[in-house]
Amino acid sequence: RRRLDQTGRLGLALELADALDYLQNRAIEGHMILHRDLKPDNVAIDANGSLKLFDFGLAKIVKKRRRTGLNLPTYELTGETGSLRYMAPEVAQQLPYNGAVDVYGWALLTWELMALRRPFHELKGVKDFFKQVVRGGLRPPLDPAWPEDFRELAAACWSPDPGRRPSAQELAALMKMLVRNALNEEERA
């Protein structure tokens, strides 16, 4: 059985980060898979307590390009994808994007997992969402009871500037350390 206390939920967030790292870095040599529709309906916990990511109907396979300086290359991908609540601002604005869109989605989905409520539930309609979230940079509040490292990571992952978000590989590595630290703290308590 899976623990669903704070540390258990951080463990699920790690599994999702690992899945994104796999899709973007190891699934297909020389390519990355962008899921483009991270949301609660597309994840589940199996009988063994492991997180599973599914519904790749909007996923896109793109050839990896070399990183130039500090920026990851962007791709001219078109078409509306995903669910607005979890959608990165650059996708909502139909701008070029890259794997950072799934890192953004991870942050919103993980926030929901930690907070046990939907992000932006108070917003009324698409127009309000665009004004406050997409253009205004509104993000859900980060609970001070959550580990400081997690709060900092979530804030970095939902940065309005995709170039400031960690890569999926960096996200997975940081989450591994964070979960390890949380487990160590539990053992000491």
Provide an overview of this structure.
This protein is mainly α. 43% of the residues lie in helices and 7% in strands. It contains 6 helices and 4 strands; from the N terminus they run αββββααααα. The strands form 2 sheets. A two-stranded antiparallel ribbon has the order 1-4. A hairpin with a 5-residue loop joins strand 2 and strand 3. The longest helix is centred in the last third of the chain and has 21 residues. The mean pLDDT is 90.
Outline the secondary-structure elements:
Elements: H1 6-25, E1 31-34, E2 43-45, E3 51-53, E4 60-63, H2 89-92, H3 100-115, H4 125-135, H5 148-157, H6 168-188
In the sheet with the most strands, the strands line up as: 1-4
Strand content is 5-15%
Order of helical and strand elements:
HEEEEHHHHH
Which structural class do you get from the secondary structure elements?
mainly alpha
Unreliable stretches, pLDDT < 50, 5 or more residues?
none
Report the biggest beta sheet as strand number plus sense, adding barrel if it closes: 2 strands, antiparallel
Helix content: 40-55%
Report Rg: 16 Å
Mean pLDDT: 90
| Tally of structural domains | 1
Number of helices: 6
The separation of the N and C termini measures: 22 Å
Shape field: globular
Look at the structure and give the CATH class. Answer: Mainly Alpha
> Do you know the CATH architecture?
Orthogonal Bundle
CATH topology: Transferase(Phosphotransferase), domain 1
